[in-house]
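> call design_seq(struct)
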């Protein structure tokens, strides 16, 4: 029988990888609380219509990548490929319009059937924020500043570049799209197969094509900024000034677009050059039309999502772990004493590793391997005298500590290791 393996495009989160994963989520949660965002959890699967309405049946995600199946009741169900649609569905179905403005944070697994590569999995994890109910572009600036501070606190801000663009309102985009289609039709013979498909469905997406021939054609393509109406220009100028005031570095990328109709005005990405083709670490934008498309009231909204795996790859060093105290019982009589002592010390906040088996040398080697800060050794002699042996592993110093004074001594010497 062949050995069972994880499904292609999935991965187990272990040790250092898991610590980085949890560190990113916890850091984001704490920062979101500072900004007044509340956490939301939506199901990992929805009725497929949630994504068909929002992403469109012709989008790459729906047509190629979504995990869709019929459940036992005959309903079409899809694993969520992204987080925003589920959040807005909850906003509508839970009747949250009376709570506007809403500031929501989420984290969890997403699912897309894509070709796995560095930083891209079929089950991947995202963190994201959504701010609903505020039309003022200051909301856009707030979510960008939250993203920028998160990347700074994770130690990766210097490894990314914020790019922004305005795709204007629907009227601006409609006029631009017509000019864009006319331009690309003159170059149909040179466009990539993927861009030829997009020309019929979503021509704006050709602007961010990675194909070399498409990139060359895009050099002279019409630019959306020339089609923005006064209101769109005013909003984008406001955002730029606010970012300048906050000293948030950015560059304008006129090729940065979103292909879905509900996006409008600001779009942005934090990009890196260190992850190959998976260069977008955190992406966002304004989506004032999404709630209405899903059957709710027209509701202005802006948000972003970030890939946890990609952020993990950018975190430069291993995260520090809590250093334990190794508790080493020698003999049957000491086992019960150490069990009670471990419970007492853990309740006081210390990380305790019980070294139950092996000779003394092997147990000390294990303590060293686990980067223990100290070892408490209790055998027959210690039980008889009431003086426990405390060995400080960083220095090799060894001393006797009375049972009654042990907790006090540990607190005095190792209080900075208490969780």
């Amino acid at each position: 029988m062949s050995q069972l393996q994880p499904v292609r495009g999935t991965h187990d989160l272990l040790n250092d990888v898991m610590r980085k994963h949890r560190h990113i989520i916890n850091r984001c949660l704490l920062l979101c609380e500072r900004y007044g965002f509340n956490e939301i959890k939506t199901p990992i699967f929805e009725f497929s219509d949630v994504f068909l309405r929002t992403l469109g049946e012709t989008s790459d995600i729906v047509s190629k990548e979504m995990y869709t199946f019929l459940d036992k009741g005959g309903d079409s169900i899809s694993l969520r490929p992204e987080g925003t649609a589920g959040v807005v569905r909850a906003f509508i179905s839970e009747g949250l319009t009376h709570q506007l403005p809403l500031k929501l944070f989420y984290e969890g697994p997403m699912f897309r059937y894509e070709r796995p590569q560095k930083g891209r999995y079929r089950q991947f994890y995202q963190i994201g924020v959504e701010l609903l109910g505020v039309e003022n572009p200051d909301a856009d600036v707030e979510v960008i500043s939250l993203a920028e501070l998160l990347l700074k606190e994770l130690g990766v801000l210097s490894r990314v570049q914020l790019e922004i663009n305005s795709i204007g309102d629907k009227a601006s985009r409609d006029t631009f799209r017509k000019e864009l289609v006319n331009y690309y039709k003159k170059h149909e013979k040179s466009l990539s197969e993927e861009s030829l498909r997009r020309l019929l469905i979503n021509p704006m997406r050709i602007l961010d094509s990675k194909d070399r021939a498409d990139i060359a054609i895009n050099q002279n393509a019409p630019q959306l900024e020339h089609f923005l109406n006064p209101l769109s220009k005013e909003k984008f100028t406001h955002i730029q000034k606010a970012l300048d005031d906050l000293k948030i570095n950015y560059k304008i990328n006129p090729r940065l677009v979103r292909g879905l109709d509900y996006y409008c005005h600001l779009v942005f990405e934090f990009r890196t050059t260190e992850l190959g083709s998976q260069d977008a670490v955190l992406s966002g934008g304004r989506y004032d039309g999404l709630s209405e498309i899903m059957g709710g009231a027209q509701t202005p909204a802006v948000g972003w999502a970030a890939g946890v795996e990609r952020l993990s790859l950018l975190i430069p060093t291993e995260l520090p772990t809590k250093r334990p105290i190794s508790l080493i019982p020698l003999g049957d009589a000491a086992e019960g004493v150490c069990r009670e002592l471990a419970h007492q010390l853990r309740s006081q906040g210390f990380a305790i590793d019980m070294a139950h088996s092996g000779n003394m040398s092997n147990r000390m080697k294990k303590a060293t391997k686990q980067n223990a800060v100290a070892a408490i050794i209790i055998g027959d002699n210690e039980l008889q005298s009431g003086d426990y042996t405390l060995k400080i592993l960083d220095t090799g110093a060894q001393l006797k500590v009375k049972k009654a004074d042990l907790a006090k001594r540990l607190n005095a010497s190792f209080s900075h290791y208490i969780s």
